[in-house]
Amino acid sequence: MDRRSFLAATGVAMTAPSSFQGKPVVKFGIDLFSIRSQGWSPFEYLDYCAKWKANVVHFSEIRFLGSLEESHLKKVRAHADRLGIELEIGMRSICPTSKAFDSAQGTAEEQVMRMVKAAQATGARLVRAFLGTMADRAGQIPIEGHIENTVRVLKAVRSRVLDAGVRIAIENHAGDMQARELKTLIEEAGKDFVGACIDSGNPLWTLEDPHLTLEVLHPYALTSHVRDSAVWRVPEGVAVKWVRMGEGNVDLDGYVRKFLELCPGRALSLEVLVTQPRVFPYLDPKFWEGYRNVRAWEFSRFLALAERGKPHEGLPPAPKEEAARREREDLEESIRHCQKLLMI
Question: Model's pTM, two decimal places?
Answer without folding.
Answer: 0.92
